[in-house]
């Protein structure tokens, strides 16, 4: 009660405080309004001199009307006031009654306290008597506790006018007394304890003190812990803020350091690469120059020195270039850093401005709530993470330390300050280190510039050296021309020698000529060897040159990559700017949303203002009416004076308010102007940054284009040189061939000697070949590098173009966003101005209200004075009327202005709302476009990469196909004639196959065609190889003769080469070359060994392929013979069998093909969808991987997450609503259950009909089987078997694949509730009669067709029916077995056919006819078996497909009906809910209205009573209280206004103050004009009305006094304004100085930037010049080298041709040897393989027979099991039920008996009769059942802790039994076909899950006829899914109606139902309900 009273007291105090504050604000506004009204004066009174009484009468009437309106307002306000007084009195009476109750409680407690005190004293005396010294201290303390005054008891309740302070004091007294009572009770208990235990008397006093001290300690500890917690919380907040700042600063610092380290590492790597490249190129040039010196042998020493000097200079140039590039990168980094600093400066400016605004706002907050300063300052320091912010945070923390010193927080804040100071010091140290690094880099730049000047001077010297080298090359060319002439003369001499040989036939002359020729040949050989050496040297030079070019290209590529990285950095900067813009846009959107909210609030306020204005008008009318009444009654001069004074004060207040509003308007306009200027500056800075980016991108473009052009220009001359070299090589090849032929004819006698020499020189030839091969490989590598570099350049150009397009788009978007930003900023400024104007209007309205209140008070005073004062004649009525007229006209004008301004503001708000909507739409569109552009860019990059990969693959494939085409062209020309005849025969075969209508032959046609073509091609290859062998043998014979002469020549040449090589080796300069060449020779020898190994493997593979081809040819020939025979037999059988059996087959085949096509179309559509989804996923994945996660995407994801959270909240609310609807639906579930019972009865009837139809169907099938047995004797089945083999194979594979696809579709389509075909028929409740009629018609048709059909079809369908049951039960097992059997049969077929063909080849002469007969018989037997199996499978699949389609269609219809019904019910429930909500809302509104009416009635009753009693005393008291409250509020408001004005005046600038001064002067002039006009009016009134002269003079005197007072006030206000303006100007000057400092720093940074940019441009120009000079040198060198290359390519080509011819001969001989060996190996292998294959075939046949026997046994066993298990009951279950019957309590035994009866097939009615006769039982029957619930678990005795189970109900125990049975301990058995027959009800199947299969199979047909049994599970379980027996925990939606409806099927695999739909939970819900 104490806490309740305390709460009431605090609430009353708050309400009174609010009332007082509102009254104070009203009085202050009224005073301001009166002042402003007096200041503005009376402008618009008409100024006519001769108006007279007409004016007075008109004004009199107007004043009357307004007085009446004011009177009405006054009466309304009086009524409201009385109602409020009545409410207050009601509350006070209730409080008084409560206080009386409390006082009674206090009295009761005091009495109880006195009684307790007496008991205490008595106990203490007893204790003292027992123990004299023990109780002294508590006895002394006890009376002291009662020394308090009880003086407040009766005083508070005597008056009715009780103050609320009495309530508070009484509440405190109650609390204190209750505390005293509790303390006394504790002491009493303590003393009683002492009295009981008198042994511990001496210690009792100590224990009391200890208890007290312990309580005090606990309280202190609690307080301390609370204070510590608060302190720690504040400290943790501070520490978190500072730690966030520190972590951000350290993270940025680490990032900057890591960036610097990465840049340094990159530069070091570049330096190392540059150094290595320079050394490689230097060595290569040294080798080239040395070779040229040896060839020339002139000016050796001078040229070597010059070349070395040149190389050193080139090294220096390269080093300087690399350093220059390094410096360029450093400058670029500095440029970026400066740009970042510039951005930071702009951000700092913005932050300073924001901090100024925040400081102003905080000052306002401090003035409003100065007490909350300590709490509000803490959280400001956690926003930004920069050094300036840290310094501000330090200052804030110091202020906080000063403020929180009283709270003992100095230590923690000091530690934070120290940490922050340490952070600042570390950051300053890092800054200093970075500045030192910058200075070092500048020093290195200056050094590089000096080195660059040195490089220029050395470049001029290099040109002279190059000219000398050029002259030497000219000399070389001249000598080569002389050599060519000598070669030409040698050829002429050779021709003459041949003529002489023909003429001279004598032997002596022939010998002499031979000797001469040998001498000439020796000389020519020497020359040839020299040429070869020169070629080798030249090619080495060329390779070195190509390596140099490669290095240059790599360098250029690196440069381009660096430029690309720069461009990427620029792009990243653009993306950063874009992100900033997007952030700004988001901020603007937030601001727009806020402004929309503000607009809505403003509209509401406008409506309120209109209502207030109407009220004001009514009040004015009442005031006017009252004034007219008062004038009619007459008023005294004192009243008029008071009215005039009050009116003047009101005018002055109104003027002051208006001036304040104008000042605020001007200030806001200036703030908006400043913001615009700042925005423009930021836009200019942004445009400068964008221009710099564009310039950098353009420079990158130009550089890349120049590089590509240079590379293409270098590529063209190289290609021309290659073409020339190839031509020369060909020409020299021809020449050398002629010379070799001539030499070979000449040297026959010296063969033996030369052969020995040849063997010695072969090694040297091999070495030369290796060197030539090395040169070729080097050449190919260089070509590949050039091609790869070109491709990379193309890719780079494409990437650059794409990036440029992206940059352009981003620029356009950024410009659009900037425009939108400007628009948004303008709209925001307008909104702010509108808000301010509306606030000013609100203030003026408040002041108007206060004026009205004042007028009402004055009217009351007037009435009182009129009643008291005697009426006086009317000398001053005219003056008062004129003043009132002027005031009323001013009020009207103000009202009109306010209304116009309100309308204008409404229009502005509507326009702004429209513009905001447009802006939001445009922003959303731009975001969409940005997303689309990003997606397109990612797709483009992905497609480019794909295209490159595809192009590479296509190039490789084309190369392979070109080689294959070249090899096959020659063969195809020869084979064209033979192939035509074969194709003709094959077309005939195809036509025959088409006539037969089989699909296997269609497939085998393509295979046979391919094999025939392959055989023919192989035969042609064999012929060609034989011809080549013959020609090669002839050539070998010829070459054996010619080789002797050639070998002699070769040996001589080799001698010369060896001599030259020895000479070279002897020279010391070639030692390095020798080592290098030896290493290369070793490497090439290793490679050659590898190549030889690979060649051997390839030859073996070729031989194996040839043997396989021969085998395939034999197989094809055998197959063709078999095909011809089969075709003949097909023709005969088709002619015989057309009448009997083809109609049914055709129909079935057509139906199957149609079904297959439809399924194929569905599969194709699904596969296309899957592929498209995969591609979308891949593209999205690759795009995300490639592009990385943008911050924009991250922000979008965060926004999406927030949206999703909101949606989740909405969904949770919706879920609660749904739960309420579900609770409503539970009441209606009974009707639904009855309907479900009816539906189940219908379902049972339908299932009975279906079972009858199935019995008829089985009978028909048996008759069908008997008819089929007659067909076994006929041999006509062979033709149909052959027709349908291929067709059935294809259909079987397709149907199996489609069933695999369809089974998940069906499971998903039917909501995972159907797994077998036959149980589904039980659910055909909607169309039972139609299905039965259709089945009967089908049965009759089948009977007719059975009588017509022949024996062939009957045998097939017999086999069909036998295997139908097993297929339905184990369809998945059969599929696997069929696939394995098919694959094994195909393999056996192939192997058998191969072996048969091989046997035919061996035994063609002996056993041709017998072998053919055996093979044909075996083929027929195999095909018959296959055909039977395939037919069985096809018929099963057909039946399954039809059944599944029918069931699906029916279930879809049922589902649609159920869904429609549920939707209708849901809509009904929703409508009912909505109506309920509406009715509840209406009831609440009506109750509220009734309550308000009752309160009003009570108020009026009390008002009437109080008026009767008289209210003069209470009114005076209330007026005095109101006046005191007004005075207090006036003082408070004046203080607040002074603080606000001081802050606003500080923010104002000098221009606004000057304008205000001018306005004040204008007001003074207006007042002067008004005075003059009043004087004129008075003179005119004196002329017209002489009676009123004295009154006019008095009025003029009063007005003059007022004017003087106003002038004094104006002077004082102007002085105050000047002082405030001076302070503001001082602040503005300080701010301007700060801004100037910041702008100076910005200008200095900009100057540094410009200087650095100019230096960068100069360096770029110098680099470009250097590159031009280098390129010029490279071009000259390339021209020189190309000339040398052309010459030496000729010589190389000649030697290559010779070497290739020799190699070709050697390879041909090796190939012949390999072929001969391979043929022998293959023959031996074939014989071995044939033997092995025959053995394997026999073994496989035996295994086949065993498998078939096993299958037959298994089928027989299955049938016997099915027959034997019908009609059996599980003994274990029945035993457990029987034993459990006697263990249950008596009132639950009838449930057990019902269950036993349902299992045994007893009807419900019979069971109920038995229960009626006898209702007894034995207890504890459930133990056995629950103990041995499953067949696998034996019965166990009860434990003692199981006793609690028997107290629970039978249904709960049955639930537990079902849960135990639903978790199988044995792996689940496979269902047979009989296990899939229809059930009577879902609950039945659920109970049978624990029963073994045999019992279940027999029980189910009975259950189909007994639907009324099993009442225990039928009602509820039909609507409950019991699919998922594994218990999932009770956490999910527990209600039945929220769970999916499903039929219960026997499942062994867990299905994906909702995780909480377990059977146990559902049954428990059922039991609860």
UniProtKB/TrEMBL annotation:
Which biological process, per GO, is one annotated for this protein?
endoplasmic reticulum to Golgi vesicle-mediated transport
InterPro entries recorded for this chain?
GRIP_dom
Alphabetically ordered keywords of this record: Coiled coil, Golgi apparatus, Receptor
Q: Which residues form a coiled coil?
A: 243-362, 387-699, 765-868, 895-975, 1015-1042, 1116-1169, 1194-1249, 1543-1648, 1685-1757
| Subcellular localization, as worded in the UniProt entry | Golgi apparatus membrane
Q: Region (Disordered): which ranges?
A: 41-67, 81-101, 1354-1386, 1867-1909
Q: How does it sit in the membrane?
A: Peripheral membrane protein
Q: Name one GO molecular function term.
A: small GTPase binding
Question: Cellular component GO terms, alphabetically?
Answer: Golgi membrane
**UniProt feature, compositional bias: Low complexity:** 90-100
Start and end residues of each GRIP domain:
1764-1813
Q: Where is the composition biased (Basic and acidic residues)?
A: 52-67, 1372-1386, 1882-1908
**Record-given protein name:** Thyroid receptor-interacting protein 11 isoform X2
Source organism of this protein record: Mus caroli (Ryukyu mouse)
Record lineage: Eukaryota, Metazoa, Chordata, Craniata, Vertebrata
Designated gene of the protein:
Trip11
């Amino acid at each position: 009660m104490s806490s309740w009273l305390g709460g009431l007291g605090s609430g009353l105090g708050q309400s009174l405080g609010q009332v007082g504050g509102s009254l104070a604000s009203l009085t202050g506004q009224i005073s301001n309004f009166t002042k402003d009204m007096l200041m503005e004066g009376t402008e618009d009174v008409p100024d006519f001199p001769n108006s007279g009484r007409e004016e007075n009468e008109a004004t009199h009437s107007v004043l009357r009307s307004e007085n009446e309106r004011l009177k009405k307002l006054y009466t309304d306000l009086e009524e409201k006031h009385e109602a409020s007084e009545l409410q207050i009195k009601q509350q006070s009476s209730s409080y008084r009654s409560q206080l009386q109750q409390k006082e009674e409680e206090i009295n009761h407690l005091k009495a109880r306290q006195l009684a307790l005190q007496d008991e205490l004293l008595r106990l203490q005396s007893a204790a003292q008597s027992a123990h004299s010294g023990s109780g002294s201290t508590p006895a002394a303390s006890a009376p002291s506790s009662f020394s308090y005054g009880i003086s407040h008891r009766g005083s508070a309740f005597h008056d009715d006018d009780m103050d609320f302070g009495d309530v508070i004091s009484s509440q405190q007294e109650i609390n204190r007394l209750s505390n005293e009572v509790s303390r006394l009770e504790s002491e009493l208990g303590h003393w009683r304890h002492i009295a009981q235990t008198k042994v511990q008397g001496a210690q009792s006093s100590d224990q009391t003190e200890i208890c007290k001290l312990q309580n005090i300690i606990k309280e202190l500890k609690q307080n301390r812990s609370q204070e510590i917690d608060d302190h720690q919380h504040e400290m943790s907040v501070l520490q978190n803020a500072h730690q966030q700042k520190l972590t951000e600063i350290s993270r940025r610092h680490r990032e900057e350091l890591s960036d610097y380290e990465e840049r340094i590492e990159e530069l070091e790597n570049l330096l190392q690469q540059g150094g290595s490249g320079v050394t490689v190129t230097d060595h290569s040039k040294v080798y080239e120059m040395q070779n040229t010196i040896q060839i020339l042998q002139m000016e050796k020493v001078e040229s070597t020195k010059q070349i070395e000097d040149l190389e050193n200079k080139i090294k220096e140039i390269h080093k300087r270039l690399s350093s220059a590039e390094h410096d360029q990168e450093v400058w670029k980094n500095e440029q970026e850093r400066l740009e970042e600093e510039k951005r930071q400066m702009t951000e700092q400016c913005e932050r300073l401005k924001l901090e100024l605004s925040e400081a102003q706002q905080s000052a306002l907050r401090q003035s409003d709530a100065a007490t909350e300063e300590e709490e509000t300052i803490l959280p400001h320091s956690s926003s930004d993470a920069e050094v300036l912010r840290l310094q501000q945070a330090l200052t804030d923390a110091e202020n906080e330390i000063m403020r929180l010193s009283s709270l003992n927080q100095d230590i923690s804040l000091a530690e934070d300050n120290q940490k922050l100071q340490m952070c600042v010091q570390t950051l300053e140290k890092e800054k200093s280190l970075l500045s030192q690094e910058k200075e070092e880099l500048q020093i290195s730049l200056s050094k590089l510039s000096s080195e660059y000047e040195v490089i220029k001077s050395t470049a001029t010297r290099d040109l002279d050296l190059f000219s000398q080298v050029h002259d030497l090359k000219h000399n070389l060319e001249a000598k080569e021309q002389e050599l060519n002439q000598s070669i030409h003369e040698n050829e002429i001499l050779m021709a003459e020698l041949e003529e002489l040989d023909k003429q001279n036939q004598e032997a002596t002359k022939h010998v002499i000529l031979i000797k001469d020729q040998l001498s000439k040949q020796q000389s020519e050989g020497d020359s040839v060897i020299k040429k070869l050496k020169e070629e080798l040297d030249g090619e080495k030079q060329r390779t070195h040159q190509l390596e140099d070019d490669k290095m240059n290209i790599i360098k250029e590529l690196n440069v381009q990559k660096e430029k690309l990285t720069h461009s990427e950095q620029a792009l990243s900067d653009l993306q950063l700017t874009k992100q900033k813009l997007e952030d700004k846009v988001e901020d603007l959107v937030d601001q727009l949303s806020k402004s929309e909210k503000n607009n809505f609030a403003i509209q509401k306020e406008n409506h309120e203002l209109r209502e207030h204005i109407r009220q004001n008008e009514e009040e004015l009318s009442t005031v006017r009416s009252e004034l007219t009444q008062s004038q009619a009654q007459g008023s005294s001069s004192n009243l008029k004076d008071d009215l005039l004074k009050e009116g003047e004060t009101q005018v002055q207040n109104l003027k002051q308010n208006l001036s304040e509003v104008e000042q605020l308007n001007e200030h806001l306009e200036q703030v908006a102007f400043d913001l615009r200027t700042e925005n423009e500056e930021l836009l200019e800075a942004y445009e400068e940054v964008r221009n710099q980016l564009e310039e950098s991108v353009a420079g990158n473009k130009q550089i890349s284009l120049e590089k590509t052009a240079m590379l293409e220009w270098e590529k063209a001359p190289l290609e021309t040189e290659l073409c020339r070299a190839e031509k020369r090589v060909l020409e020299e090849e021809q020449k050398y061939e002629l010379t070799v032929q001539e030499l070979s004819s000449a040297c026959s006698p010296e063969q033996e000697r030369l052969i020995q020499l040849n063997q010695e020189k072969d090694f040297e030839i091999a070495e030369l070949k290796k060197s030539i091969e090395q040169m070729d490989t080097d050449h190919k590598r260089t070509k590949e590098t050039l091609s790869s570099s070109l491709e990379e350049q193309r890719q780079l150009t494409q990437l650059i173009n794409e990036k440029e397009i992206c940059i352009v788009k981003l620029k356009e978007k950024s410009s659009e966003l900037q425009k939108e930003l400007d628009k948004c900023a303008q709209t925001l400024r307008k909104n702010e101005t509108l808000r301010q104007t509306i606030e000013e209007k609100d203030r003026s309205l408040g002041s108007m209200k206060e004026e009205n209140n004042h007028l009402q008070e004055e009217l009351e005073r007037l009435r009182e004075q009129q009643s008291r004062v005697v009426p006086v004649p009317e000398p001053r009525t005219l003056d008062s009327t004129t003043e009132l007229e002027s005031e009323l006209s001013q009020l009207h004008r103000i009202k009109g202005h306010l209304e116009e301004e309100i309308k204008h503001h409404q229009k502005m708000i509507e326009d702004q709302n429209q513009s905001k909507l447009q802006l939001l739409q445009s922003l959303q569109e731009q975001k969409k476009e940005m997303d689309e552009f990003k997606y397109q860019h990612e797709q483009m990059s992905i497609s480019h990469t794909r295209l490159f990969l595809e192009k590479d693959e296509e190039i490789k494939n084309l190369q392979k196909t070109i080689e294959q085409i070249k090899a096959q062209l020659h063969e195809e020309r020869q084979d064209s004639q033979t192939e035509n005849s074969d194709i003709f025969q094959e077309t005939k075969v195809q036509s025959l196959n088409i006539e037969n209508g089989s699909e296997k032959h269609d497939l085998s046609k393509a295979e046979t065609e391919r094999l025939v073509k392959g055989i023919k091609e192989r035969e042609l290859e064999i012929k060609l190889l034989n011809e080549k062998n013959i020609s090669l043998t002839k050539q070998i014979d010829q070459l054996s003769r010619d080789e002797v002469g050639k070998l002699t020549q070769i040996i001589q040449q080799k001698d010369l080469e060896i001599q030259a090589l020895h000479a070279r080796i002897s020279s010391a300069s070639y030692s390095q070359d020798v080592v290098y060449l030896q290493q290369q020779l070793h490497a090439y020898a290793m490679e050659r060994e590898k190549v030889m190994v690979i060649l051997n493997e390839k030859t073996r593979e070729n031989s194996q392929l040839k043997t396989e081809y021969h085998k395939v040819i034999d197989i094809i020939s055998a197959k063709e013979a078999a095909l011809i025979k089969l075709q003949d037999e097909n023709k005969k059988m088709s002619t015989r069998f057309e009448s009997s059996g083809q109609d049914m087959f055709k129909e079935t085949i057509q139906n199957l093909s149609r079904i297959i096509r439809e399924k194929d179309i569905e599969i194709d559509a699904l596969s296309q969808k899957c592929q498209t989804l995969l591609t979308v996923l891949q593209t999205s994945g690759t795009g995300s991987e490639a592009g990385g996660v943008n911050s924009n995407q991250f922000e979008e994801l965060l926004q999406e997450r927030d949206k999703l959270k909101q949606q989740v909240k909405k969904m949770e609310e919706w879920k609660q609503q749904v739960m309420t609807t579900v609770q409503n639906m539970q009441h209606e579930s009974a009707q639904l259950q009855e309907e479900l019972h009816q539906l189940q009865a219908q379902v049972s009837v339908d299932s009975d009909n279906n079972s009858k139809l199935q019995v008829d169907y089985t009978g028909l099938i048996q008759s069908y089987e008997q008819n089929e047995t007659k067909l076994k004797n006929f041999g006509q089945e062979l033709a149909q078997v052959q027709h349908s083999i291929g067709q059935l194979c294809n259909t079987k594979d397709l149907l199996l694949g489609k069933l695999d696809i369809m089974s998940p579709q069906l499971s998903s389509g039917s909501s995972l509730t159907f797994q077998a075909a036959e149980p589904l028929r039980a659910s055909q409740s909607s169309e039972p009669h139609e299905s039965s009629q259709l089945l009967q018609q089908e049965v009759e048709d089948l009977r007719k067709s059975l009588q017509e059909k022949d024996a062939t079809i009957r045998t097939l369908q017999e086999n069909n029916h036998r295997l139908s049951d097993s297929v339905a039960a184990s369809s998945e097992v059969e599929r696997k077995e069929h696939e394995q059997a098919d694959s094994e049969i195909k393999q056996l077929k192939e192997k058998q056919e191969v072996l048969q063909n091989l046997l035919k080849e061996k035994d063609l002469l002996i056993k041709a006819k017998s072998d053919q007969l055996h093979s044909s018989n075996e083929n027929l037997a195999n095909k018959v078996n296959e055909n039977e199996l395939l037919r069985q499978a096809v018929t099963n699949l057909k039946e399954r497909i039809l059944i599944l389609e029918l069931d699906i269609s029916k279930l879809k219809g049922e589902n649609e009906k159920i869904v429609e019904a549920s939707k209708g019910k849901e809509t009904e429930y929703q409508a009912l809910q909505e109506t309920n909500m509406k009715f509840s809302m209406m009831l609440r509104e009506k109750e509220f209205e009734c309550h308000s009416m009752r309160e009003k009635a009570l108020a009026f009753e009390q008002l009437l009573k109080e008026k009767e009693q008289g209210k003069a005393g209470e009114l005076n008291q209330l007026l005095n209280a109101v006046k005191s409250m007004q005075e207090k509020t006036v003082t408070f408001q004046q203080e607040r206004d002074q603080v606000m004005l001081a802050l606003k005046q500080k923010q104002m600038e000098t221009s606004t103050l000057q304008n205000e001064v001018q306005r004040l002067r204008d007001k003074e002039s207006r007042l002067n004009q008004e005075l003059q006009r009043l004087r004129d009016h008075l003179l005119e009134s004196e002329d017209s009305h002489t009676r009123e002269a004295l009154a006019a003079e008095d009025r003029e005197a009063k007005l003059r006094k007022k004017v003087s007072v106003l002038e004094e006030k104006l002077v004082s206000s102007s002085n105050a304004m000047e002082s405030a303006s001076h302070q503001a100007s001082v602040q503005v000057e300080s701010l301007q100085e700060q801004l100037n400092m910041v702008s100076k720093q910005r200008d200095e940074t900009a100057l540094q930037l410009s200087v650095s940019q100019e230096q960068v441009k100069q360096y770029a120009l110098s680099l470009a010049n250097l590159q031009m000079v280098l390129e010029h040198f490279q071009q000259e060198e390339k021209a020189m080298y190309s000339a040398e290359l052309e010459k030496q390519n000729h010589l190389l080509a000649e030697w290559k041709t010779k070497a290739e011819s020799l190699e070709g001969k050697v390879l041909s001989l090796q190939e012949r040897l390999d072929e001969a060996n391979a043929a022998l190996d293959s023959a031996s292998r074939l014989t071995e393989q044939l033997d092995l294959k025959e053995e394997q075939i026999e073994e496989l046949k035996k295994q086949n027979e065993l498998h078939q026997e096993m299958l037959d046994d298994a089928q027989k066993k299955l049938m016997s099991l099915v027959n034997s298990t019908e009609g059996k009951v599980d003994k274990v279950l029945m035993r457990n039920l029987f034993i459990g019957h006697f263990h249950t309590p008596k009132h639950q035994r009838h449930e057990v008996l019902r269950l036993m009866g349902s299992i045994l097939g007893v009807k419900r009615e019979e069971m109920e009769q038995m229960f009626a006769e006898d209702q007894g039982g034995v207890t504890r029957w459930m133990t056995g059942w629950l103990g041995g619930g499953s067949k696998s678990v034996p019965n166990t005795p009860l434990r003692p802790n199981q006793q609690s189970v028997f107290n629970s109900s039978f249904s709960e125990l049955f639930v537990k039994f079902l849960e135990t049975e639903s978790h199988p301990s044995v792996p689940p058995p496979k269902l047979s076909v009989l296990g899939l027959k229809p059930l009577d009800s879902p609950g039945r199947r659920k109970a049978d899950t624990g029963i073994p299969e045999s019992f279940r199979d027999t029980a189910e047909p009975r259950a189909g006829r007994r639907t009324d049994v099993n009442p225990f599970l039928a009602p509820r379980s039909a609507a409950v899914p019991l699919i998922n027996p594994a218990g999932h925990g009770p956490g999910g939606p527990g209600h039945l109606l929220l769970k999916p409806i499903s039929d219960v099927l026997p499942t062994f695999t867990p299905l994906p139902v909702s995780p909480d739909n377990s059977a146990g939970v559902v049954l428990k819900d059922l039991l609860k309900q």
